[in-house]
Amino acid sequence: MELLAIEIPYFEIGVKAGFPSPAADFMGESIDLNRELIKNQFETFVVKVDGDSMKDAGIHHGDRMLVDRSLPPEDDKIFVCCIDGDFTVKRMRIDKANQKVWLLAENDAYPPIEVTPENESFLVWGKVVHVIKSF
User: Can 133 be counted among the known catalytic residues?
Assistant: First the structure.
């Protein structure tokens, strides 16, 4: 299955978040979001966020995340994991010295989750590579 190229107009100049730019009517080339956002086509999927445990990382309820399953676990990066049959998105903390893995929420209302041998199952599903927001 090959991704269909869908090119949309792309404004190369940055859009000012302050005063309007006099060059705001300049339009550059087009951009294919599939090519720009998806590096591993057959290992990337989109998942909708349900909940607020990652709000302080800028990931909010209703956002959509692009998740790449081909990328290995990394300390201090955000991953979708399955722990004891439940999917969750959290920041992964890998403590190699003590051989521990923690899943950390980005919201003080949620406690850290330590991955232990007592867990029935633990699977790193994929790394969050982009977040798509709706307003």
Answer: no
> Is residue 54 located within the same domain as residue 119?
yes
User: Global pTM?
Assistant: 0.80
**Beta bridge partners of residue 49, listed in sequence order:** none
User: Do both 13 and 69 map to the same domain?
Assistant: no
**44 beta partners:** 68
pLDDT in tens, 35-81: 888 888 889 999 999 999 999 999 999 999 999 999 999 999 999 99
The span from the CA of 121 to the CA of 89, in Å, is 16
Q: Which residue in 30, 39, 53, 96 is the catalytic one?
A: 53
Number of neighbouring beta carbons within 10 Å of residue 51:
15
In the residue annotation, 30 being an active-site residue is answered as no
**Domain encompassing residue 104:** 40-132
The one catalytic residue among 39, 90, 96, 134: 90
